Structure formats: C-alpha cells, structure tokens
C-alpha cells in the first residue's frame, strides 16, 4: 500500500507514490515532501524542510491542504535522523524488502483491548480507593479468622501447613475459574517456558508458601497485636532485598525509614508481656520470607514474557507449587502422632470432618480476596 503525495513534490518514479519508510511518520506536509525528495535546489533533506518552513508552506499541506497520517511515531524524531540509520521505520534495514507502505489516513492501533476505556483522574482515585478499602477489610478479616482458628486458647486447630495447602488449592481453583469465564480480562497473552517457571516462578511460590505458613503457625503462640507489630517489619526486608536485586538504589531516606521501623519493632518486643521466643522467631522468619516474596513478585510482574500481568494469572501460577510442597510437609509432620490429624477430634467423625473442612474453606475465600 502507498501514501499519496503531491506529484510536483515527488521526485520518485513510482507514479506519485513514496514508500512510507522514507516519509515522516506524522501528519504529512509540503515541507516533509521537500525534505523526503531533497528536490528544493538540490539541498539535503534537512535544508529542504527548513526552506519550505521559512516560505510558510505549513505543516499540513498537499495540494488541497489534506493531512496524510503516517504510522505512529512516539519519539517524533526528524527524518534526517531516520535516514542516518537507514530506512525509516524498518529497524535500520535497507533494501526493497525493508520498505513498508501505509494507506493515506491509515493509523495503526496498538492499544490493548483489555485496557478498557480511559478513565478520569477522579474515577481512578475512587477505583483505587475502593480496592484499598476492600483489601484492608479482607486482610483484617483473614487475620482475625486465622487467630481464632489457630489460637491456643480458641479453636486450637494447630495444623498451619494443611490449612495453607487447602487455601492454595482453593485459590488455584478460583483463579482458574475466573480465567475461564473472563479470558479477555484475565487470560495472559503469553505463557512462561519450563525453564522460566522453574527458575523464577517456583522460588517465588516457595517463599510465598513459607511466609504464610510461618505467619499462621506463630498465631498459636503470640497475640494478634504482637503478630501485627512484628509483621510490620516486612517493608524493611522488602527494601533490603530490593537493594540486593537492584530494584532500588540505596538512599539515606530509605535507610532512615528502615531504622525507624527497626527501632519500633525493638520497643514492641521489649514491651511484650506474654513473650514467646518460638512465636517471635516464626513471625520474624515470616517477615523475612515476605520481603523476599514481594521482591521476587515484582520481578515476575515486570517481565512480560512470563504471562503474569495480572493478579489472577499470578495466583494461578504460584498456588500449585505451594499447595504441593505444603501438602507433602503436612503429611509428614501434622498427620501422624498423638497430636496429629488422624488422632484429632476435628476428624473424629464424618460430620465433624465436613464441618472442619467447611471452616477451613471459608478462610480460603478470605485469602483469595485479600
């Protein structure tokens, strides 16, 4: 296809047609025509354009003042820069096979249909505020649920590995259902290769599983308020791993934030009345795993080749690894023995077993929403 240009401004022998690769990739003008052909007084393209502008020939010329739109060019560089690289718009390639032609008035649409219509700043603010409020609600509800389920003085269901394994399976099923029902919104365009999955996705999934498991296990020994205070040290570990992975550059402002959070954690530990060393070590280890987890997650989301450009796709890829790993660990640690699942009153009969799985399944919904 060709872009039509005025015959008198065209020195090519293609019958008034000039390859779009040598035309300016923006609204076509007489000045651009002169620059493309270099036909004004034998001048080079840059000088030809400058003279045409000085003569007042304008930017949207043509014989009838028609504006011819070329393919979109984000950087807006002049064609003389493109000519230095080779054929414009062809990645620096030259030769007849490097020429691409577009119809006059044709503009390539590179937008992603999943982005939806553009929203105003007020609409974006309200939408993000709603998401944040829902996250706070479900996250708080999940913390209260876990404390009541795992607390030593409450429900005392001290099987954190099995709980997280079941939650991971439920999240995998829910995310898969959403991707099947709404593929335009959640199904990624690409899929991770086997090597990328093993080297990037699996480590992130392991850190996620360990973070959640140790967090839940600590609730059996410490109070929810102490749990929250120690878990608030997670940003410290996020920044430390971000420094190590090159995601952030060390700055004094960030270092001061780390020091303030660390001093707050120290005061919290010193003022805790019912201090449990085992519970403290579990929640501290969970905070470290959480920092590593979120740094690795950022690396995953920044890569467009892994097919995890939305939270639903990320959950679908991460949860199977955590469910399998924690399920095997639970089978070896929590199932047998005098305090194991097989001897527990929670599964003493079919009715109590179904009730127990129902309670655990309700937490899976909260975990998925948070």
From TrEMBL:
**Keyword set for this entry?**
Membrane, Transmembrane, Transmembrane helix
Xref: Pfam families: TPT
**Annotated Sugar phosphate transporter domain residues:** 129-304
**Membrane topology, as annotated:** Multi-pass membrane protein
In this chain, composition skew of type Acidic residues spans 71-82
Chief place where the protein resides: membrane
Q: InterPro entries, alphabetically?
A: EmrE-like, Sugar_P_trans_dom, TPT_transporter
| Record localization | Membrane
Q: Where is region (Disordered) located? A: 1-45, 59-98
Q: What transmembrane ranges does the database entry give?
A: 125-145, 157-182, 194-212, 224-245, 252-271, 277-296, 317-337, 349-369
Instruction: Give the protein name, as stated in the record.
Output: Sugar phosphate transporter domain-containing protein
Q: What high-level taxonomic lineage is stated for the organism?
A: Eukaryota, Fungi, Fungi incertae sedis, Chytridiomycota, Chytridiomycota incertae sedis
